Amino acid sequence: MEADNITFKAFENEKETPHLESLRSLISDGLSEPYSIYVYRYFLHQWGDLCYLALDGENLIGVVICKLEKHREHGANRGYIAMLVVKEEYRGRGLATKLVKMAIDAMILRNADEVVLETEVTNTGAIKLYEHLGFLRSKRLHRYYLNGNSAFRLVLYLKSNAEALASADHGHEHIDLDADGDTEITND
Amino acid sequence: MANNSGGFNDAFARLHVSEKSIEGNQITTTTISSPSSTSYRDVTQLFRQACQGLDVGQLVKDPNFTLFEAVGALEIMDPKMDSGLLKPGEDDTPSELYQPVLPEEIIGIMDQLLSSEMSWHDGAALSQTVFTCLYIDNLLSLNPSSLEEAKFNLPPSETHQPGSPTYQLLHVVLRAYCVGLIKCCERVNLQILAEHTYEEEDFVTQTYNVSLLDFITVAEINKLLVSAIEYVDSTAAPWPNNIKMALKARLAFRKLFLTELSRDVKEMVDKRSNWDGCITLLSTIGITRNLGTAVPSVFSIAVQRKLASTVPPRPIVQIPFEEAFTIVSRLCKDAKEILRVLTYSGATNLMTFFLRFTARKPQPSTYVRSLLQTLFFSNHVALGRMQISHILLEDVKELCLPADDLFDPRNELSEMPSDTRFQIHQRMKWFVERAGNSYITLYRTICQNRSRLRRNLCHLIVDWDALQIECEEIDGELQQLIKEEPVLHNDNISYAFSLSSWVYHYKLRQMEWIIFLGFELEVYLPHEFAGMYWYLQYFLRTRLQHLERIRHFVHPGVAVDSPLAATRSKECIASAQDIANAQATVNFTLLEAAALQELCSAMIFLYTALARLGLVKTPPQPYSTDVMRYELRMKPFLTIGCPDVVPFEDFKALVDNPDIETIEMLEMASENTKEGRKNFDLLSKMSATSSHALLCEEGYRLNLREYLRSCIGAGVAIVMLLKAIKTNTVADAEVEIDQGSYHPWFPIPRISSKKRPPLPAVPPTGR
């Protein structure tokens, strides 16, 4: 397991081969929520360029999956980090931070106004990672996960409100699942 | 996502064409007739044909297939998602249901069922809890529509000859208990669905189309339970007395619990509740707990396969009996306690009760918080017998005591639009409706879980801000109608603006709660503490000034020549006692706000000093900027007219106080903690009546003690920091934020030396 063998790349034009299956099992082992194939396709086919892989040789050892779209019709151009997993034996080497940074940098290039995500309140490692990049906890979500755990919503502003509004263009598809204006994946 | 899907699109489009053209393409159709005469067509071949037009990896996505659908989709044959999946070697034919022979086993099953039931109350789904009991499943699987049908369907067994005690154990005792428990679940579901709670988050009301004995009355079920008790009591039941007692206590509890869960508000107003009966029986259940023998085999996750569910399989949740016992005991005590609100003793007392009751740790159960909402307001009636307008106007009077003429009952009698009384009435009617809605929403919001409370308050303040502006206008019109006498206040001639003053006061309190809850919910990081306490201090200072103004304008005078003077009703004229009461309320509120403000000021200095000394660190934060993070933090308040958000540079200077030496800063913080303590001590000495804590004195005093603990804790931290600075040992110091031992709104830094173990937290004061 030489650190030198570890490479990073965008999922981009890979379609579903060759990493989709290993990606699914990596995430399925690492996260508590079960996700259907549709969830992966939803993200990877629309925002494959915001998905980054960490590889040790040919082996997939880490992944970040994101999206970027208008939050409500006149809202901010909101980046969303949906999943972040690094294989247990590779943790503690800053791989996750590197993956997240690559995703945020790509979002910045694509004119994102903000980046948001949710994480379990007990996942101190992930919370610390994001907070060390500049994220703040904006709210707590009671019993957000299927396993009954609560979440923190973490938010990173990339532009100030005024700037974001000035650069907003209209008429984009949007997801609005939550009454108070947040995109939340609720498993129901 | 690929756009080029031409070949597929053509073929796909044909799936939608009419039957005729399908026939034209000579597609074999298999029609399956169903009762509703819907015809089905086999499209396998067409689908295969359509797929030919797709490249590998190419995706066809309907624009309406959103993340919500993707997340809600289940994948068949994936064990994490497919609840019907049989693992290799697993058999779908249910093994024969074990039929207990010992009364101890029945006690055990009853207690396991209680654990399941309370796991459901605690947020798990029925499919993970009550429904996993094979006896409940057996009883409900034939969808009973009458009591006779609500029975176990078990194969004959040699050990269970009809009429034998073992048979009766199952078919009389356990059956009655199960029927009672299912009905309890139905009552709880009805209550929760009647009020505002968050599905899946607070509670899962989903029943998977299984009827929870909806058609069987509580009276019938109570009879069934009584006859089971009678059987256990009879000589036909050959068990020792302690076993009999254990069984009877469980059956009797079920009967009383069901009765309480079925009460309507009117019965509660008539004081017919008997939660004490439940509590007494619970203690017997606790004592006889060890007589039971658990029978784990009668609970199975396999039941989930049969349930009409769109969610992935979820594991069985059955909390330990001790935990379930605590939850059910607390539920009964809390349900009894909330009946206190029916003894109305003024609006401020009512609000204090809501605030204290819902802030309790752990928070009262969803069921009880839902019931509290019903007690407060249901069917257009408040507290089972009052008009909400009465409570609303009392709340206004208790704090601001506006001019008498606003409340004159004669106003309502006037029908002439040009008449002053008519015009006053129109405006007060508007206020009651407009503010009444916001007022009811506020009470209901306070009943939500703490995370939702904070989020919803962020929305409520926008409404209260608008309400304030609208009320200012109405106040202006009212002061002319009643010929209010202006008063000199802060070198200005001004009027009372009673209604908008009351609204503004509530708005400020809600703004404070948003930030306080941020601390309670651990939304802020230690390096943000100083800034967030600065905002609290700022809101509190604004409220203190506002309260001073309110005190100045309590019961404003009107011109002697007011046209209303001659016809004024005597009953609307405030007594000297009313005026004294309003002034006392303002004074009490001032003291409380001042105490909080002192403690907040101490916290600003303390956490700023910790940052300066490098004991509280800001993470690197390579992305975004401080200005943007400030904007994010202030988001709930950005649209609020008054008080406004201060520019970042000013904020930074005000929090950092670069001109003040650290030692001096800590000494100032020390003064603030002492002042805060003095104020909290004064508050502790006040009676429950003066504190408006008549309905919740114990909880109110506990809260005060927690504030005091935070004052003392902050004082200790300040002393240790000063000592470290003076002895040049700051480099050896370590800081850990203690969220748990103090008031949840005032977490305290525990300062210790890296070389020595940390000092314990301040011990609890007089609990």
Automatic annotation (TrEMBL), chain A:
**Record's keyword terms, sorted:** Acyltransferase, Transferase
One GO cellular component term: NatC complex
Q: Which InterPro entries match?
A: Acyl_CoA_acyltransferase, GNAT_dom, NAA30-like
Q: Which family does it belong to?
A: Belongs to the acetyltransferase family. MAK3 subfamily.
The record's section on SUPFAM superfamilies has: Acyl-CoA N-acyltransferases (Nat) (SSF55729)
Report the source organism: Arthrobotrys oligospora (strain ATCC 24927 / CBS 115.81 / DSM 1491)
Outline the extent of the N-acetyltransferase domain.
6-159
CDD domains per the UniProt record, alphabetical: NAT_SF (cd04301)
| A Pfam family it matches | Acetyltransf_1
* GO molecular function terms attached to this record: inositol hexakisphosphate binding; protein-N-terminal amino-acid acetyltransferase activity
- What protein name is recorded for this chain? N-acetyltransferase domain-containing protein
**Gene Ontology biological-process entries:** regulation of protein localization
From TrEMBL, chain B:
Q: Taking the first listed entry, what is the main subcellular location of this protein, grouped into a coarse class?
A: cytoplasm
Q: Does the keyword DNA repair apply?
A: no
Q: Which residues form the NAA35-like N-terminal domain?
A: 57-222
Q: One Pfam family name from the record?
A: TPR_NAA35
Q: What's an example GO cellular component term for this entry? A: NatC complex
Localization, per the record, is:
Cytoplasm
* Top-rank taxon: Eukaryota
Q: Where do the NAA35-like TPR repeats domain residues begin and end? A: 338-748
Identify the InterPro entries for this entry.
Answer: NAA35-like_N, Naa35_N, TPR_NAA35
UniProt keywords (A-Z) are: Cytoplasm
Family that this chain belongs to: Belongs to the MAK10 family.
What is the name attached to this protein's record? N-alpha-acetyltransferase 35, NatC auxiliary subunit
Q: Which organism is it from?
A: Arthrobotrys oligospora (strain ATCC 24927 / CBS 115.81 / DSM 1491) (Nematode-trapping fungus)
